[in-house]
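Q: Got a minute? One more chain.
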Amino acid sequence: MKFYWSILCIIFLIAQLSFAQKLSKTEEKIIKQVRLLNKESIDFLEKVVNINSGTLNLEGVKEVGDIFRNEFDAIGFDTHWIDMPEDMNRAGHLFASIKGTKGKRLLLIGHLDTVFEKNSPFQAFEQINDSMAYGPGANDMKGGDVIVLFALKALSKLNLLHKSTITVAFTGDEESTGKPLSISRKELIEAAKESDVALGFETATGFNNATIARRGASGWKVEVEGVRAHSSGVFSEHTGAGAIFEMSRILHRFYNEVRGEEYLTFNPGNLMGGTFVDYDAKASGGTVFGKTNVVAQKAIVHGGLRFISEEQKENARAKMRAIVAENLPQTKAKITFTDSYPAMRPTAGNQMVLDELNKISLALGQGGVSAYDPGRRGAADISFVADYVDGLDGLGTMGRGAHTLQETVNLKTINDLIQRTALLIYRLTR
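A: Always. Here it is, folded:
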């Protein structure tokens, strides 16, 4: 058995190598140029990581955006900052673009904000050795933004951008998207409609995977009302089951009847029930009062729903609505849904972009690249444009512990990833 497995592995390796293409002389120059920028790119990453840009730190997000803006200005991009309405409490977005007549029109997507606000104890870039550094947002995703910038810098130094059409979109609220989405993602969607391919630079899953599909995200809320009465009357004709029993029925049936489809998940994040319930949406918490001898008159649960397509999302919602409508005696319930991120479906066009990246990676000796399991990836900005362009995501830096106080970025691999990105941009824009 081991002999046959060894033969299969050899056949697979030969097949992969057959896809590898030699780099052209121009592409070899691109690689050399990227290597010259290695130290500069890491120093730049440290600089922007050391500026707090938590989503709600509007000044910090704008400051990081201004630093990137100056760099894009220097390589000939037209840049502009898009402010959001004041009541949205979001900083806005940085867009940079060049226009030409050659090759595919590209949309390169990143974000400037992080999950670490000004009151976080995690504020500084700390290089541990030549391979790793800690830093708030160093991997998610200021590292990805750096890959975009320095790939374009290398191409610009070799005068390889002047006929290309490229739009860079760095949003300022990816970690906590401004509402309504019709405003906060308006310019991103408009840019996609004028592009052919979107490349997302969210955190990478390694050299051997990229993302051609991401699940969408939706919120849901169930509110239940019952009759407040002495507990001695529970289950009686006039008192009925109470709000907590009704909520239990609903969640139990969700688990048994809605669960099961591939890539579909839903999670109740918080649950409150009793005589009085006071929920604070901004704090994602609240207070409850209730006694064991009083039938609960109110219950509320907030949850999230993940899905691979709009059809899957709508089917799940329909099942949930039907379950909520079948109430226990003397109770009533309602469910509401809020849209957040749409799904990025796997498509043939997305696979074609991945195939090109795979060829580049093999030519660089970095190994083949295959599609990453969408069930293991969260939502991202590329999802908003997936219906309009072919796309590929997960092209950012490698690291661990994103969204935690131990977030790291792999410094050794940054230059290799910039090389890969520069060649992908070059080939797509030919």
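A: Residues 138-157 form the longest helix (20 residues).
Q: Perfect, thanks.
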